[in-house]
Each structure stands twice: as structure tokens, then as C-alpha cells.
Amino acid sequence: MDPSGRIIVNNKICMGKPCIKGTRFKVEFVLELLASGWTHDQIRGEYDIKEEDILAVLEYARQIVANERVFDVPTNP
Q: Per residue in 50-67, pLDDT tens?
């Protein structure tokens, strides 16, 4: 799934944090719910979020982590 149609970043919405298009639900909020053990069904039942939105949030997060740069930082003995 390509999250670009469902996840937007706009400085005028949610202080520029990525959110689900047409809502004020931040990617961060949905990830927090999932990390807290909420099921997709619980999220959809409690909030006006579609399954495709949840999957777009997960794909957006996956892309962020996949493109993360990791640097080896030497430590002093």
C-alpha cells in the first residue's frame, strides 16, 4: 500500500505532524493505540478510521524505519 494518498503532512494541520487525510488523527496516535494492544477492530469501532487508514499508518512507519540511517558511534574504552 502506498500511504501517500492517505497520510498527509501539512503545517496547518496537526502542527505539521503526519496525519490521516481528512482527519486530525496523527500517525503517532494510531501507532500508540496499536502499541498499547488495541486491535484494528477496536480502533475502527472507537474512531472514524478505516482499515485502509490503519494499514497506511503502518506502511508510513515502515518506510520511515526502512529509510533510517544508522551510524556506528565509537565509544571510548
A: 999 999 999 999 999 998
